[in-house]
Amino acid sequence: MNADRNQYLSAMGVEQWVLRRQAEPSEATLATPSPETAEVNAPDNTPGLDWPALQQRVAGCTLCQLSASRKQTVFGVGDHNADWLIIGEAPGADEDAQGEPFVGRAGKLLNAMLEGVGLKREQVYIANILKCRPPNNRDPRPEEVQHCKQYLTRQIELLKPKVILAVGRIAAQNLLQTEEAIGRLRGKAHRLQHFDIPVIATYHPAYLLRKPTEKRKAWEDLKLARTTLNRS
Ligand code: URA
Fold first, then answer.
1. Strand pairing partners for 190?
2. pLDDT at residue 45, as a whole number
3. CATH superfamily, region 48-231
4. Does the beta carbon of 73 sit less than 6 angstroms from any atom of ligand 1?
5. Most buried among 131, 149, 161, 213, using CB within 10 Å?
6. Rounded to an integer, what distance in angstroms lies between the CA atom of residue 105 and that of residue 46?
7. Which residue has the higher pLDDT, 107 or 24?
8. CA of 101 relative to ligand 1 center, distance in Å
9. Average pLDDT of the chain, as a whole number
10. Given this model, what pLDDT does residue 34 score?
């Protein structure tokens, strides 16, 4: 076992005796797929906006009903010159309270996953499909995704990342416009339509907290993202 692998596994809390071929339900079987398919007449309010203007636009957004229940919007965080863009699903309770993505338990594991490939959180950019918390952490609704899409699209235009890591089923299915299970989407490089940016899908850290045996696959996915970026 090399040092890189050791470092990752211990940062991820993977015990070396864990069986690799243990039968576990896939993440896709734990939740019903809800690909974003609804056509909503969402006006695009973002053309030409720079980072501060975009953040301000998001902060004042009332395009969907989530604006009524949120404490605050969760715009995104990180280096505006980052090569890596990490995209999650939506803010949870911790993120809604603090205004920053991935700050709860799943966020700590995400930080450890990034460290496993030599990245500090501050070196990447982290955002979500939705900028507001869905009540009771329910799945994003298609119309919410559709309204919010313009903000993430503008973030991608401004950032111009070299690789996108889609964490979890919701992020991967929405970015890749597919209903394919996350277990089938991970492990290969896809391209983001209209941008031609490589997208690597992996398991959501919240899922990995429930199914630690899958952490090794997530490590493979992060290594694939690193290799893909280095080749670009
Ligand atoms: N899960 C996500 O997908 N995003 C967050 O910001 C927090 C938890």
1. 199
2. 84
3. Uracil-DNA glycosylase-like domain (3.40.470.10)
4. no
5. 131
6. 32
7. 107
8. 6
9. 88
10. 41
Q: Measure the CA–CA gap between 213 and 219, rounded to whole angstroms.
A: 11
Question: Which of the 8 DSSP states describes residue 20?
Answer: S
Show me where the domains of the chain are located.
48-231
Q: Are strands 189-192 and 197-202 parallel, antiparallel or unpaired?
A: antiparallel
Instruction: Give percent of the chain with pLDDT exceeding 90.
Output: 80
Average pLDDT over residues 90-111: 98
Q: Report the DSSP beta bridge partners of residue 199.
A: 164, 190
Span 198-226, pLDDT tens digits: 999 999 999 999 999 999 999 999 999 99
Half-sphere exposure (Cβ direction) of 19: Cα atoms closer than 13 Å? 4
- Detail the DSSP E strand segments found in the chain: 77-78, 84-88, 125-128, 163-167, 189-192, 197-202
Tokens of 64: 């969907």
Q: Which atom of ligand 1 lies at the shortest distance from residue 126's CA?
A: 6
